[in-house]
Amino acid sequence: MSTYTLSNQAYLKVFFHAAKHPHRQVNGVLLGKTVNKDSIVIEDAIPLLHHWTSLSPMMEIGLDMAGQYAESVNLTLVGYYQACERPDDTSLAPVGEKICEKIKSKFEKAVAFVIDGALLGTSQPALIPYVPSGASWKPHPGSNAAFAPKSPFQLVSADIPSRAADFVKNDHLHQAFGDFDDHLEDVTIDWLRNVACIPADL
């Protein structure tokens, strides 16, 4: 089994995307690299859409641009993330499975994370890992203990969920965050990097 380590920057971007649009579906892709054959380090996240309902032309364009950006910084698309409209919905949407399959066609060890809205803003990571299972994607068998000691899923810093909540509550950093949808409305929004919302001392 491969292991997956989520950087602070990647976690914050996923968190900020969900926090900025708490009552919408949001999604994006994860950028990373393989270390020591079976260890995948997820270094960054690129937010795609919050108006999406299907695998639309805008989704395809956003995916292509995210892939090109990943190559430019010597990373690979290694996964996908999404949040649902309802906090209690933690299922991977059909469009999510299609995107996961597209990523998996180029990166065999692709992974997906669905945000658990009920835990978002707590000290818990609030991420449910999904992995391929036959012709579909299902929660990892140990998803209830994901990010616990000895789990194949880890955070670089165990306190980043709490810090992320503080950044939203106290500093409102999520308001500086933009996805591809936002960029289409205002081309000055740097959705690929989102450096404006990442603390310098992270």
UniProtKB/TrEMBL annotation:
<protein>
    <recommendedName>
        <fullName>MPN domain-containing protein</fullName>
    </recommendedName>
</protein>
<dbReference type="Pfam" id="PF03665">
    <property type="entry name" value="UPF0172"/>
</dbReference>
<dbReference type="GO" id="GO:0072546">
    <property type="term" value="C:EMC complex"/>
</dbReference>
<dbReference type="InterPro" id="IPR037518">
    <property type="entry name" value="MPN"/>
</dbReference>
<feature type="domain" description="MPN">
    <location>
        <begin position="4"/>
        <end position="136"/>
    </location>
</feature>
<comment type="similarity">
    <text>Belongs to the EMC8/EMC9 family.</text>
</comment>
<dbReference type="InterPro" id="IPR005366">
    <property type="entry name" value="EMC8/9"/>
</dbReference>
